[in-house]
Specification:
CATH architecture of the largest domain: 3-Layer(aba) Sandwich
Helix content: 40-55%
Shape: globular
Strand content: 5-15%
Strand order of the largest sheet: 3-2-1-4-5-6
Largest sheet: 6 strands, parallel
Number of domains: 2
Order of helices and strands: EHEHEHEHEHEEHEHEHHHHHH
Structural class: alpha/beta
CATH class of the largest domain: Alpha Beta
Length: 306
């Protein structure tokens, strides 16, 4: 089938590639046109000059952009998806955005006879490149049935979890877990260092037991090496945790661990780590242990660079 794909960042680029390699006819749009040209040269398919053009005659239109404002721009804008998509098609939004936005776009799409699924992903750049993502989906069963087999071209798990917004809420659950695990790993590693242990050896041992986690398996070596110029940026994690905390406030629910880790990420930003991987919580712990860096105490969420 023809599929439109909007947004060729570190996640969207390989995801669109998997769709093309699976035999679909993929038309891509990216704000920086040279990235779309590069994609076409690598995978084939075609390139559009606007989101509307990419959506024209497509059975599925996938979005993978930055935040709520970006989604609104590519969907509603003057040359947005809604100006090109056909009745009966389905928009699949892989952006990590708010549940409120998902419900909003679902209603707007339904008014035009168009399906909408909020479908944020987990698994990082490596998961996207290897076709091993997890996709958390919110929306109608009939729309999910139309797209499930296509999404499996880049996913090891695709699951419908409820009505519109459910996928985004599930992604928030995912980010709460990650925040706590990374902070726990950072604390364990600094404890090991201060105790004079061979931290690499210790982690290799405990990774074979109950302490094992994806973060430990995939990040402890780069953390020990002080290598953070990769992975999922602190800025984006703070964006995600901001949505988590906003939703929890609506529920009158306190999330003390999540709030604390969000504050720690604000301190990493102040250290110059806005684009570092989320595992850079360890750099904060090392600076604190050395006493070489005064860690700012701030709860100002305006410091998030979205």
């Amino acid at each position: 089938m023809k599929i439109g794909f909007i947004g060729l960042g570190v996640m969207g680029y390989p995801m669109a590639g998997h769709l093309q390699l699976a035999g679909h006819s993929v038309c891509v749009y990216n704000r920086t046109a040279s990235k779309a040209e590069q994609w076409v040269a690598q995978y084939g398919g075609s390139q559009a000059s606007t989101p509307a053009a990419a959506a024209r005659e497509a059975a599925i239109v996938c979005l993978c952009v930055g935040n709520d404002d970006d989604v609104r721009s590519v969907v509603y804008g003057e040359h947005g998806v809604m100006h090109g998509i056909s009745e009966g098609a389905v928009i699949v939004d892989h952006t990590t955005a708010s549940a409120e936005l998902a419900r909003e776009v679902a209603l707007e799409a339904a008014a035009g006879g168009i399906g909408f699924l909020d479908a944020p992903v987990s698994g990082g750049q490596a998961g996207a490149e290897n076709g091993r993502l997890t996709v958390m989906v919110g929306g109608a069963q009939k729309d999910f049935d139309k797209v499930e087999s296509s999404l499996r071209s880049y996913a090891q798990c695709v699951r419908l979890l409820g009505d519109a917004g459910s996928g985004q809420l599930a992604k928030m659950v995912n980010q709460i877990c990650i925040a706590g695990i990374v902070q726990g790993l950072a604390e364990a590693m600094i404890f090991s260092e201060q105790a004079g242990l061979d931290t690499a050896a210790v982690l290799d041992v405990i990774a074979r037991g109950a302490a094992q986690s994806w973060q430990m398996d995939n990040r402890y070596e780069s953390m020990l090496a002080g290598h953070y110029e990769h992975g999922f940026a602190v800025d984006w994690m703070r964006k995600d945790l901001g949505m988590v905390l906003a939703e929890s406030e609506k529920m009158a629910l306190q999330l003390p661990l999540t709030s604390m880790v969000d504050e720690f990420y604000a301190q990493v930003q102040a250290m110059g780590g806005s684009r570092w991987d989320t595992s850079s919580l360890f750099a904060r712990m090392q600076a604190q242990a050395r006493g070489a860096t005064r860690l700012p105490q701030t709860t100002d969420r305006d410091s998030v660079n979205e």
